[in-house]
Design a protein that fits this description.
The protein has helices at residues 12-31, 60-75, 81-95, 120-137, 143-157, 177-193, 197-214, 243-260, 265-279, 305-321, 326-341, 369-381; strands spanning 45-46, 58-59, 104-107, 113-119, 168-169, 175-176, 215-216, 221-222, 225-226, 240-241, 290-292, 297-299, 302-303, 352-353, 364-365. By secondary structure, the chain is of the alpha+beta class. It has a 4-stranded antiparallel beta sheet.
Length: 397
């Protein structure tokens, strides 16, 4: 897939440096100041002018994502990252943990609990945040919290058959792939700082769940919604697939290959190929929000985060298979920089475009920084792929 049509090849090194500069010179300074609510953790959302917007709650997942971002950013040289993470961490631990165990869905803007439900997705991001705080600080002060969170997941989300976890408590009977995907991501991060047999076993369980339940070899897809037996729910809704998640699973599966003991390469390649063929608009490079498993478009709008997941998948293919598609990477970066970042206040983003490619948002969600930062961190980690290219003529605009 390639929407770069100019005769000369795009200057990939210039685009990569533009993305890195946007993250480290614009986004991180902005969100470590304007995005911080005094000593009350992080701002949930901004208005379209880039000013804090009161919404009456602060989600646990946003705090966890921001703690992750600033902890990881500290390891890459962003010195205010640790202080910024600490503020969010203190607020989350003081207000997000429930007496019965587990992290609540949302807290009040000044503390306390607003929504005491439990969501597996939130628990996963707390694990990711705590793992990266541990990595950034070199301290083990959050290891007990990691263990408590893992225990709470077993206590509240455990299933009798041992296949994955419930997605939410109270339980509505549906099983979702997305929180399991993020549990996979979080546990891989936990493994790096807390390498216990229990963590390794959980990682392997999710890899097996993907192989035996989530992935459909007939269509080459992974669905979003399942019933209690891990069968796709009936009707069209059960055939909803998201190309962004296909790219994300590809990246995770390739990075987990040695640890899981499961050969998921063929399945991962099929997920990638499906998303590339059906999920990316060949004219604009925009990625559709939703498809059906036959490849037809269900929602032709375009969130920003699937672009970051496509970038991560393209980089993983280069890292593990030596297949570096420069034009596709350039397309993703051009779309991100011009369509989502370039039209927003400095350091911010337009998170969603409609079917015509125009903004369809009323706010700037803080949660998007996680996607943009992680993709850029991967770009930096694999700088050897593009660093040799000249930047003398500047990047394609």
């Amino acid at each position: 897939m390639n929407v770069i049509t100019l005769e000369r090849r795009p200057n990939l090194a210039g685009l990569c440096r533009r993305m890195k500069d946007w993250v480290f010179l614009d986004a991180l300074p902005f969100w470590s100041t304007i995005g911080v609510d005094g000593d009350r953790g992080f701002i949930e959302t901004l208005d379209l002018d880039g000013k804090p917007k009161a919404v009456g709650f602060k989600r646990t997942r946003v705090h966890a994502r921001q703690i992750y971002v600033f902890s990881h950013a500290y390891t890459l040289g962003f010195d205010p990252g640790l202080r910024t993470s600490q503020n969010g961490l203190d607020f989350l631990i003081a207000h997000g943990w429930l007496k019965g165990g587990g992290w609540a869905v949302s807290m009040g803007e000044n503390g306390g609990i607003v929504n005491s439900d439990l969501d597996l997705y939130d628990q996963a991001f707390v694990l990711l945040a705590f793992a990266w705080w541990t990595r950034a600080t070199g301290k083990n002060d959050l290891i007990p919290w990691i263990d408590r969170t893992l225990q709470a997941i077993d206590d509240h989300f455990g299933r009798l058959d041992g296949e994955g976890w419930k997605s939410r408590v109270p339980d509505d009977g549906r099983l979702l792939q997305n929180p399991h995907m993020h549990m996979f991501e979080a546990l891989l991060a936990v493994k790096a700082v807390h390498p216990t047999t229990d963590v390794t076993q959980r990682i392997r369980q999710i890899a097996l769940l993907f192989q035996e339940r989530l992935f459909d070899p007939t269509t080459g897809t992974i669905a979003e919604y399942y019933d209690e037996k891990w069968s796709r729910i009936g009707g069209d809704y059960g055939h909803v697939v998201e190309p962004g998640h296909h790219f994300e699973w590809y990246w995770l599966l390739r990075h987990a290959e040695q640890m899981t003991g499961h050969d998921a390469r063929d399945a991962a390649e099929r997920l990638f190929a499906f998303a590339q063929q059906y999920g990316v608009d060949s004219t604009t490079g925009l990625i559709h929000d939703e498809l059906l498993s036959d490849g037809s478009v269900r929602s032709g709008r375009h969130r920003s985060w699937p672009q970051t997941e496509r970038l991560k998948a393209l980089l993983a293919r280069a890292e593990f298979d030596g297949v570096f598609d420069r034009d596709c990477v350039a397309t993703v970066l051009c779309v991100l920089l011009d369509k989502y970042l370039g039209i927003a206040p400095r350091g911010c983003w337009i998170d969603h475009l409609d079917v015509t490619g125009r903004p369809c948002v009323s706010a700037i969600p803080a949660s998007t920084l996680y996607h943009l930062f992680l993709a850029t961190a991967e770009l930096m980690r694999l700088e050897r792929l593009w660093a040799g290219e000249s930047t003398s003529h500047g990047a394609l605009q």
